[in-house]
Each structure stands twice: as C-alpha cells, then as structure tokens.
Amino acid sequence: MPAFFLAATKGDFITALTGLTYERAVFFHTWLAILSFSLVTAHVGIVGFYWARPSYDIIPKYPKYVYGIIGYVCFFCLVFGNIAIIRRYAFDFFMLNHRVHSFIMLLMAFLHNDKAKAMIIVGIHLLVLDKVLGRVYGILHSKKSPTKGFSEFELVDDDTIRATVPVKISKTNPNNWYRLLLFKYGTWLAGSHVYLNVKKVDFFQHHPFVIASLPSSGNITLIIKKRNGFTKKLFEKVKAIRDEQLANGINEDVAEHQKPSDPNIVKLKASFRGPSSPKYQPLITFDSVAFFAHDTGASFVLPVCLDLLQTIEKREVLKDYLGRPAHSYIKVYWSVKKASDVLWYNDLITKLTPFINSGKVSITVFVEEDDEMKTIEHNPFGVDSKKISEVVSVESDSFSVSNPTMKYVYEEPMNVSKILQTHIASMNFPEQESYRSLAVLSCGYGSFGEEVEYETSKYRWGKDVPNIYFYNESYNT
Question: What is the pTM of this model?
C-alpha cells in the first residue's frame, strides 16, 4: 500500500529515488491499485463463498467484516471511476470521487485489518505529507509573488494561451542533492513542470504544464493549447474576460497588482504545485544532442537547449573541459503548424540568437502551412506583418528568427527517420575522431514522442553509430 500511494505523490521525492518520470510513476500507481483490487476481490470472493455455506449466516456478525465490505465497495468505485472517459469529460467528478472514496476506503481498511495497520498508516502519512508540503509551497509562492498570486493570461492564437506567473526568484542552487528530493522554491531546472490551478476555472484540478522559461526571466511562462477539460474551460474564461475588457475597458477599481496593463491581457488568481524537475541525464556529457519538438513541445526543448548552451559557455570561460567534449554538436528540429507559432517563444529564441549566430546550435523549423503572419490589432511582440523568413534584424528588444543557421522548411512534415539518419551521418568526420555519444530528447503532443523513440531505437547497437540516450517529456500541454 505505501508503494502505490508514493507513486501518486507530486513532489520530487519518489522520482529522485527511483529515476521514474512522473507519468511513469502515475502508471505504476494505477496498476498497483488494480493489482491490489484484484487481490482484494479474490479475498472477498473466497470469504463470500464460505459465508454462503449453510453453516454460516449470510449477514456478517462482526463489525470488522462490515468495515471490509464498505471498504471494498469504495475501492470498486475508485477503480472504475478512474476510466479514461470519466477523467476526460468529468474531471471534477473524478477528483471528488477519488478523494471521498479513498478516504472512506482507507478508514475502513484500517478498521478491518488486525495485523496490517502499520502499512496503511505509513501509506496515508506519506501521501498527506506530500500534499501538505505541496500546499505550503503553493501558499509561499502566492504570498511572496510580486503580484500576490495574480497571473497574466494572453490569447496568442485561436487556440493558444500564454500564461505568465510572476515568481520571487531565489538564489539557492536547485542542483543540491537535498533539493532534488523536494519541490523547488523560487527556482527550477530547465524542463521542469508545474501543476497549475485556476480556481475560477476548475477548483480541484492541478494541470501539468512544462515551464517555457528559465529562472533568470523572473516568471514562470506556460504555453497552453486548448484541448479538452481544463484547458478548454481556461481558454473560454480568458476569452470571455478579454472580450469584456475590450468592450467596456479595464476595471479601474481593483488593486494595482490585479489590473492588467493591456485590455488584451487577463489577470486571474492562479496557484501551482511545484516546480518539479525532469529526470534526464546531464546533457553536457554528450558529444551531440538532438532535440525534437512538435508544436508546444518547444516549451520543454527550448529552455533545456538554452540552459545547456549557457552551461557550456560558463564552462568555456573557466576553461573547464572535465567530463564534457571540447565541441558539442547541437541541433533542434521543431515542427509547427504555422510560421507565426514561433512567436510564442519570443523571449527564448531571442536569448538563443547569439548561440545560433555563432554556430553553436542550429534550429530547423518545419512549417506545415506556408502562410503569411497575419496582421492583428494587438501584436504582443511588436513585429510587423511579414513572413518570418524575411525578418532579419537581431535586436535585444525585437524578434529575429532568420540567420545563417536557422532554417525554415515550408509545407513539408518532419521526417524523424530521415532527420536522425542525416544527423548521425553528420557526426562522423574523417579528419577527426568520430563522436561517440548522442542524446535525443523529444517533446510533443500525442504519439510524437513514441515515433521519435521508435526511430531512435533502430540505431541502438548498430554498426558505426554512437551510443544513444533517449528521453521523452510528455508534460507538454
């Protein structure tokens, strides 16, 4: 029982100890619960068979048997209330069902058992400790926030929101060993995710999103695609408030930290649990790194890439080459629907621009639709209505995505197999020692990660290929 409760925790404790990613931990939580339910069902079936014999009364005589029956019924509701269709279309019901029935089930299990009470107590307290710590961290973030927990939500596309959560940044090192076991306060590692909650949208749900920014920005930036459930309700809520502000103007009676700077920006009280760190290997040790991103998967890929390049630059200044190659071969392959989608990540790409221009990283963007950037009344980046490939200026306060090593491929889907083949082939140079290790990281919606993993697996244990490490981040939307 402690095992499947620990697998449901949101902190870094269990993932740091086991190396499991969060979605894998939830997978084990689900299947350990199903296994336990199967064993309990067998137990109930055997006991029920003996109760039905003529020598026994049908109705149990002892209270602990009644507790056991109630606990089993609650366990049944937990297992069958967890099916995908309920989670997808009635998440609030799922959460309420999960919390109420799990509490009753655990209480009944405690009263029913004579010799296994310790396991139940340990499991409950570990889960409660995680919940309490997560809540305490959330309150601290909200109280210490420059805007008292109010965050900015902005519609950047027909189905996309950019959320900006101001955070009081801490100068503590997030890489200390003891910080790996706890939520990060005031800082985070590149590629981390948070569990966002907006009570005006959904009181119970904490939805995971990858942080599309680094701590140096002072903000947790989230790129949110409208899907189903929470994201759809959030999009509709923000759109309704924005339309009202455009029609009636900004409410001047609210406090300054609640007042948006622009009628296109909506301010809502938001909280989050986390940040929680990803579980990939240190990328600085690899001779080459290939990043694959699909759509908002760039929320994971771009911060990790930028952090890697900044780390390499710091080590270069110190002339520190221990445990890393002298020259890393780094490439980013990014598939987007429209060319204008890259503007969602204006800040990150602006910071990546010096590394792109110096040839330390190259980015290839595959655009599914060869469209023009549409002129909109409110352009959050201050960019003219030009085709992205024609934007050539590189300024600190403007946006550029056109340079010698940033390539755009229009109306051509990303061919992962061909890209990997070309990337691996380009790692071998006759005049130099061949590169020996390759890290492949991916993030994207749906089965994108599975596709990259499948194509990557073809090159493992092959002849004249590097040692390959693969990591997929699924918390992208």
Answer: 0.77
